[in-house]
Amino acid sequence: MSDVDRLFVRLKAEGRKGFLPFVTAGDPDLAFTARLLKRLEELGCSMAELGIPYSDPIADGPVIQASYQRALGKHLKWRSVVEMLEETKPHRSMPVVTMVSYAIMYRHGLERFVDEAQKAGVAGAIVPDLLVEESGPLAKICRDRDFSLIQLVTPTTPEERALRIADSSSGFLYFVSVTGITGERTELPEGLADRVQWLRGKTPLPICIGFGISRPEHVRLLAPVADGLIVGSAMVRLLAQHDTDGPDRVLERVDGLVKELMEPLSKAGG
Predict the structure, then answer these.
(1) 60 is catalytic
(2) Which of 5, 49, 116, 227 is catalytic?
(3) Model-level pTM?
(4) pLDDT digit string, tens, across residues 71-90
């Protein structure tokens, strides 16, 4: 059982929903990333998604793309991220999973990547560009090591394919709330809750919803049918203000955003 599995078992037993913020590794630098992860844990976040910057956008909207470019512009490397995570591991109890391109994992070596990540205290990986037809080798490596392999289902994924993705995944399923790229939105599509409810009846995996969640009303709408909610662009947007406003002010805004979105989540129940 991975740390991700244990988290959702505990949340279910406590009748709570997960809150999963996304942050970009190395934006503006890894020292701030370490400080931010610590603050998110102090705020009561369930898990953090740590984006590993990649030069070719997969499903990333302009806010996250810009964040990746800022980090890559400072020559961020996977090895540096691992070193930061290893250093902070003794002080971290909140699970961390990476959002990482399969191209990075493949180039690094699948087993080597997973072993390095796990040694640094990473509980799993979200791999948005991994086709289910090609997921077998990585899924086996992850199963053998109790390392969660989290894959994405979209609103346009055919039902049969969605079930295949669920079968090859572990930890939780990442349900993309909208068709398109990441980014904050004023409203979410009709029928989303029904689609998630259907999938929940077909798989024992927890389902977390992401893409476009940035307002309390989004949380109130989706929390009843989700096991957790993922907030990305709304969080990453705050990081862009680091150079002008400074780290303390950015962390204050992170506090405000997290508290605003967790408040309706805490009322959703199990």
Answers:
(1) yes
(2) 49
(3) 0.90
(4) 888 999 999 999 999 999 99
